Amino acid sequence: MSVKLAVVGATGSVGREILVSLAEADLVPAANVVALASDRSVGSEVSFGEDDDLTVQALNGFDFAGIDYAFFAIDARTAKKEVKRAVEAGAMVIDCSDAFRLEPGVPLVVPGVNDAALGQMKKNICANPSALAILLACVLKPLQAAVPIKRVVVSSYQPVSGAGRQAMDELFTQTRGVYVNDLPTKEHFPKQIAFNVIPQVGAFESDGYTEEEATLAGETRKLVGPDIALTATCVRVPVFIGQAAAVTVEFEGALTATAARDLWKKTPGLSVIDHRADEGYVTPVESAGDDLVFVSRIRDDKTVPHGISFWCVTDNTRKGGGLNAVQILESLLKARKKK
Ligand SMILES: NC(=O)c1ccc[n+]([C@@H]2O[C@H](COP(=O)([O-])OP(=O)(O)OC[C@H]3O[C@@H](n4cnc5c(N)ncnc54)[C@H](OP(=O)(O)O)[C@@H]3O)[C@@H](O)[C@H]2O)c1
């Protein structure tokens, strides 16, 4: 089957990981992939696998006719406008921004968690969840399938790469600035991120939650179960790659930490690294470059009748971003073959 693909935002963190995962999956030759970005990047090159480079073209004015599938890895405001243009030209879109994630008729998909949702696509748009929602969906789904989840409390530790390439530069520049006594300047984050943590990801809403915290609750309900109550505190930390969370789950019935560990051990894509000793858990740095979701620090929550607490982490640009988007394409191609 020969399909033509476009990757919009090919020069960004997620776009580049989409190209890496696409080349690794060996779904199409480089000649069938178009790399698009802003006018600033026209003519520059991005790698596609070890042997090929793609010359970046402008999204502005690009004609999507003949493109079968288009990945969008750009900001939500531009995506809202440009995704519709791609769909009208006949492309099926996998969008990585938060523009369409909670829209009815747009499946929000984590392959391996809720593949069947792809069958409910109404607008030729499928949404890739946030890195944090992907991480949570992967760990919560096997638990929810065993015993319904009542309530989830999440504290996230979010890397700067989740805010894009320029945000990574800001952590680097600020860190260097602190060492040479050059006061850090702020552009992407509301406070200094080097040698600090910031309890704000996204803008504040009127109820005191941030956008990231509010959409996490909505995305988790769409991915895992509509009745799950979830409260989150999302925190940006001075880490480049690796989305981590400390999670406490309360269940409707009995499910122990031992039972949860056994369920996770049987789940593809998850790795349980949980030794009650120094080094017996996985940190963000160790998750970088890996496709797995790691679960550690699994224990019973002794404050409620049925509850557990644990730590989980994944590479936000791989399973938390580009890889998940490519896995969605693989599922769509499989469904197309069956037709
Ligand atoms: N990073 C993550 O962990 C993650 C995970 C899941 C989802 N997401 C979402 O994915 C999207 C991309 O995130 P990112 O981290 O990859 O951002 P990024 O590193 O800042 O990259 C942004 C990309 O968008 C392009 N772009 C910006 N304005 C454009 C325009 N007007 N027209 C065409 N292209 C334009 C940029 O091109 P130039 O290089 O030419 O400026 C660049 O390729 C965001 O919506 C983000 O929320 C991110």
Automatic annotation (TrEMBL):
The keyword Cell division does not apply. Keywords: Amino-acid biosynthesis, Diaminopimelate biosynthesis, Lysine biosynthesis, Methionine biosynthesis, NADP, Oxidoreductase, Threonine biosynthesis. It catalyses: L-aspartate 4-semialdehyde + phosphate + NADP(+) = 4-phospho-L-aspartate + NADPH + H(+). GO terms for molecular function: aspartate-semialdehyde dehydrogenase activity; NAD binding; NADP binding; protein dimerization activity. Its EC number is 1.2.1.11. CDD domains: ASADH_C_bac_euk_like. Coiled coil: none annotated. Pfam families: Semialdhyde_dh, Semialdhyde_dhC. The keyword Ion transport does not apply. GO terms for biological process: diaminopimelate biosynthetic process; isoleucine biosynthetic process; lysine biosynthetic process via diaminopimelate; methionine biosynthetic process; threonine biosynthetic process. InterPro entries: Asp_semialdehyde_DH_beta, NAD(P)-bd_dom_sf, Semialdehyde_DH_NAD-bd, Semialdhyde_DH_dimer_dom. Residues 4-121 form the Semialdehyde dehydrogenase NAD-binding domain. Homodimer. NCBIfam families: asd_B, PRK14874.1. Belongs to the aspartate-semialdehyde dehydrogenase family. This is Aspartate-semialdehyde dehydrogenase.
